[in-house]
């Protein structure tokens, strides 16, 4: 269903009355999200969503949470907590990060970078 | 329900270094953590995936102090076996709720003989291993 469908109809009607077709077209054409369009996430939205997710994790002190913070050094998480945090980010963006890459995510900035370069994330 | 017996089966092997066994433990934990919703659905549990994750975390925490390389390898293998048996649906309800998801057994405080005696029981042995909900 695209706008192209309406084009022959409007052109056919415009032969008779232009003034009558304009409101009909307006009534029928409902603007809606085009899911086929490749939108992608902006870096700001990724950052804010990741920070929101991490704030919800009870072992993280929101005051210490910055974009540059390391999970283990700055936020004081152990390795199992880091696994949980990365998994929470996975769930937020409904993706599955492979183990090798999940091991490498040690800071908040790395998580943001990974999501930014993953096209499946939404 | 048919299952492929070799699904999720792993070989028992020894880790070369502490770093490798650490990696294997983290991988095991990640697999457990990821499968929590599946476990809830498979056994139609009355628990949330969050609780399942908490219970599994307790099992890992219980062995946090282990430093012996061979002991860690055995624990990893046992964890893998548990994982395979759970996700293949080879467990019964009581084995899941009573053993796998039992967090009370780990939280139970160490009491002296007399404290237990005054309560009317001499040891924890009276509590059956798999009695469902304790």
Give me the number of helical elements of chain B: 6
**SSE class of chain A:** mainly alpha
In this structure, how is the largest beta sheet of chain B organized? none
Mean pLDDT of chain B: 85
Let me know the largest β-sheet of chain A: none
The quaternary state of the protein chains shown equals heterodimer
**What's the SSE pattern of chain A?**
HHHHHH
Percent of residues in helices of chain B comes to 55-70%
The backbone outline of chain B, from C-alpha atoms, is globular
Give the helix tally of chain A. 6
Largest interface: A-B, 9 and 11 residues
Low-confidence stretches of chain B: none
Distance between the termini of chain A: 24 Å
Description:
The complex is a heterodimer of chains A (about 120) and B (about 130). By secondary structure, chain A is mainly α. Chain A contains six helices and no strands. In chain A, helix 1 packs antiparallel against helix 2 (about 20-30), helix 3 (about 45-55) crosses helix 4 and helix 3 crosses helix 6. Chain A is elongated and about 60 Å long. The two termini of chain A are about 25 Å apart. Mean pLDDT of chain A is about 80; it is low at about 10-20. Chain B has a domain at about 20-105. In chain B, helix 1 runs antiparallel to helix 2. The longest helix of chain B is centred in the first third of the chain and has 25 residues, at about 20-40. Chain B is globular and about 50 Å long. The model of chain B has no long low-confidence stretch (mean pLDDT about 85). The interface of A and B includes residues 84 and 103 of A.
């Amino acid at each position: 269903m695209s706008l192209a469908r309406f084009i022959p109809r409007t052109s056919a009607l415009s032969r008779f009355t232009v003034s009558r077709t304009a409101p009909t077209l307006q009534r029928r054409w409902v603007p809606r999200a085009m899911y086929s369009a490749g939108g992608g996430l902006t870096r700001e939205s990724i950052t804010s969503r990741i920070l929101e997710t991490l704030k919800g994790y009870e072992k993280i002190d929101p005051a210490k949470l910055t974009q540059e913070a390391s999970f283990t050094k700055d936020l004081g998480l152990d390795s199992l907590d880091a696994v949980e945090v990365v998994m929470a980010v996975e769930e937020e963006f409904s993706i599955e990060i492979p183990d090798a890459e999940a091991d490498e995510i040690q800071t908040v900035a790395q998580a943001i970078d990974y999501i930014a370069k993953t096209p499946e994330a939404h | 329900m048919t299952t492929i017996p070799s699904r999720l089966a792993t070989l028992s092997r020894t880790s070369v270094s502490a770093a490798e066994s650490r990696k294997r433990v983290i991988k095991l934990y990640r697999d457990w953590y990821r499968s929590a919703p599946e476990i809830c659905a498979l056994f139609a549990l009355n628990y949330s995936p969050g609780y399942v994750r908490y219970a599994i975390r307790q099992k890992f925490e219980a062995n946090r102090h282990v430093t012996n390389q061979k002991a860690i390898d055995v624990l990893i293998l046992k964890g893998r076996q548990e994982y395979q048996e759970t996700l293949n649906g080879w467990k019964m309800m009581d084995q899941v709720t009573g053993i796998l998801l039992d967090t009370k057994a780990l939280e139970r405080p160490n009491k002296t003989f007399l404290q237990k005696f005054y309560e009317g029981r001499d040891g924890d042995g009276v509590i059956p291993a798999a009695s469902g909900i304790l």
